[in-house]
């Protein structure tokens, strides 16, 4: 948010100021402070901010954040796959609702189909078969008898398809997924996905910055509620 | 959504495709796959999809889903009572926010007041007095001293009024309530209401399909977080 | 909402009635019943209703509720600080999204900058240093190693700045914070903030009325899920 043009803000400074002068000052100063922290790149911060906005259905700022994400080095393909990922991890309507704002930015920049990942990739990323077999076994033992359809879709649609799409690196796919989980206070799902994120290359410092950054976008309570889970995942990996 | 007319989609295929070609394909193929699963009727899937959209405040697709619900055999009276039920179980503003889209479909189809349940029914459904006395006793012992007003309203407004309205069968009232709870990750409230739903006639297979279906509408994390509760309710009933 | 003018309702009676005649009757009768309960003033009910609407991103009714809050004795400065408080406790975009509706009411009433709290107050409220030192120590021991940035911001931005702003009394700042936490089912955060609210002067009866009132605005499940936490906080204070 360091280079946001005030003119393109959906809630312009004079409007915010007319309700709370302090909110306008904090919007500029404190978001700048968190965005410029070391430990997480502008690019990563753009991705998780967009994940938070889509997860909460807050489309008003999405055009602006899409513009900045592209300026910050996120590719159109990565944004495209982020929206697809969030259809599964934040809800279908949340992903669809992101398309008008993001589509408008893509159109304005002349980003066309040839810059977007294909419906079905020519080649999927290689699957870590033992890890996936272990995941499927664990979930199957717990829930196969409860919801066989959901267990089947989790394997087929998510772990043998969505996660193997090459348009978004596994580390980044994990990044937006963890951001969605923190934003929605899905503590029960964070352990698996934060572990996976770190297996996929997210460092402990980056993970720490993710939850710090999201305090602003998802609200303090969601960030604070995620901290015990983050602490336990960190401890387990370092044990 | 097998018979969705693309022309009436709030997020048209070409728009979705301009952001993510895969999201458009998955919207068509995967939602079709889940909608056409055996184990839960189109009618029931319409009800729970609408419950999910209202619970999340996602009104953009509500007109389309209302249209399809009516095509799938849901009556105007049942939709009317679903909105009323969700005022209590998803929040008042969520129910009110559903009225423009649903009212527009009703108007277009000439559905008038005589097809909608009266403010106060001529006759309420019979109350299972022993079961209700037990519920009131349990809740009273736990929370009467904490929030007497809420305990009183729960008895008077919900279990001795709302749940006895004849415009929506108890099994269907439970169905939309469980859908709202899964959608909002209200695990602590699912046990009581899923048990009640099954007492009211929802089968285990249908319940399993509800959570599978909602993975798409509420996002995977909400569905996965509900699975342990569903498993435990199933186990307890079969013990 | 006892004195709501039907003409200014975002969802007019005839529209609500066209979907559910009962919903319209309940909107008038039951909201009137809860609003007129003794134990919590109109003013406090206005504040927590607005906190619930902002926390859920339900801006449609926000203009109407802002108007009534001002009629009920909430000052522009208090509304301004409520929005700022919720930027931190409900998410930044939620606070920003409140500004069009609230700003329009302020403009219509000629409420200008001189009636709003300054960006930086001339004088902050005195800090209870021992209590704050204890809070910081507890949080630091738990989470300093997990997310040092978030722990630092919590101290600097929240407890040594936001909470000390004089535009909203600590008891009222706690009131809207607890309302936001109940509305978002943030059980893990309620214990600390309800305790603090009662330390700041919120009575047990008022707290009980808050959760009863919010059942309507946040939905029954959120209110019911908060009850065990309220019960335990009450018990601990009276032990």
TrEMBL record, chains A, B, C:
Gene Ontology molecular function, alphabetical:
peroxiredoxin activity
Q: Where are the transmembrane segments?
A: none
Boundaries of every Carboxymuconolactone decarboxylase-like domain copy: 33-101, 148-231
User: Which InterPro entries does the entry mention?
Assistant: 4CMD/NDH-1_regulator, AhpD-like, CMD-like
Q: What's one Pfam family the UniProt record gives for this protein? A: CMD
Q: PANTHER family under this entry?
A: 4-CARBOXYMUCONOLACTONE DECARBOXYLASE FAMILY PROTEIN, BLL4600 PROTEIN
List the protein's name. Answer: Carboxymuconolactone decarboxylase
Q: What organism, scientifically named, is this protein from?
A: Novacetimonas hansenii ATCC 23769
